[in-house]
Amino acid sequence: xxxxxxxAGLAVLVVAGLLAGCATTPEARxxxxxxxxxxxxxxPETLRQRAERNxxxxxxxxxxxxxxxxxxxxxxxxxALLLRQRAVAQRGSTPITTYIAGINGKPGRxxxxxxxxxxxxxxxxAFNAACARALAEGDRSPAAVEPCGGEARYEQLAAGWRR
Length: 163
Description:
This protein is mainly alpha-helical. It has helices spanning about 1-20, 25-30, 35-40, 45-50, 55-70, 75-85, 120-135, 140-145, 150-160, and strands at about 95-100, 110-115. A hairpin with an 8-residue loop joins strand 1 and strand 2. Residues about 10-25 have low confidence and may be disordered.
């Protein structure tokens, strides 16, 4: 029984590692910037309404606006932190069924693994925050533009940030 739990835990770690590896390409990083793009393209009032309905992307977008005083909002680091915490909160779990083969003639069994579900992952929130920080500071160094998905995408986002 204990070895089945260890195997299930190992499976979760392997899947998480593979998914994390997928988010390291510039295209994947830019795709994960949905909250930042929403902050630049959507009115704060619309974001606020969606955030009140527990939309994690809107909560993260509003958090970025409050963090840097963008979109006509006053700078409010406390509100930004509260919204970010709500955005990265776990939103339930996703059950995954696995089959564990029998050993030495014993029958196999089915096991359930419950993987936490996030609408905005902590890693995605970190990419959004890092890119927003680079935009706010006007930092165009390679390390600063990397979370934004590269120089060309940084320029696209910077145009929206300056509005």
